[in-house]
Design a protein that fits this description.
Blueprint: E1 2-4, H1 7-14, E2 20-25, H2 30-35, H3 39-46, E3 51-56, H4 63-66, E4 74-79, E5 82-87, H5 95-117
Parallel strand pairs: 1-3, 2-3
Antiparallel strand pairs: 2-4, 4-5
Length: 118
């Protein structure tokens, strides 16, 4: 997963036309460390449909506050600079919940792409 350590990098990746999922995390977060072992497999599974990036909430300044991130880890999807869907709460997230969210994000992105193309 590409690491985002600045507000400028965050803006760049979220303005891509491809579906980008920002995973907001911090080194000190136990629930963030909980997902670390399985996230490489999840990233590989979805590699042909989206790009996952890790946003370090400590290094990116006000980005988390501007994006209304209330707990970490949190997942927010973007395309062309616009937020599509989010999975943001204070609860620990399971692999199943993350994959369900990613499936929903892909469906929303594909629906918007089809609608825009018409």
């Amino acid at each position: 997963m590409q690491m985002i350590n600045s507000k400028e990098d965050f803006i760049t990746v979220t303005h891509s036309s491809q579906l980008t999922v920002a995973v907001f995390k911090a080194d000190w977060c136990g629930d963030c460390r909980y997902i670390d072992p399985f996230m490489p497999e999840v990233e590989s599974k979805y590699a042909d449909r989206l790009t996952l990036v890790e946003v370090d909430v400590e290094a990116t300044g006000d980005v988390s506050q501007e994006q209304n991130i209330l707990g970490i880890p949190s997942f927010v999807t973007y395309a062309n600079g616009k937020e599509l869907v989010r999975f943001v709460n204070k609860a620990r997230k399971s692999r199943e919940e993350i994959e369900q969210f990613l499936d929903r994000a892909v469906a929303v992105y594909e629906t918007l792409a089809t609608t825009t193309a018409e």
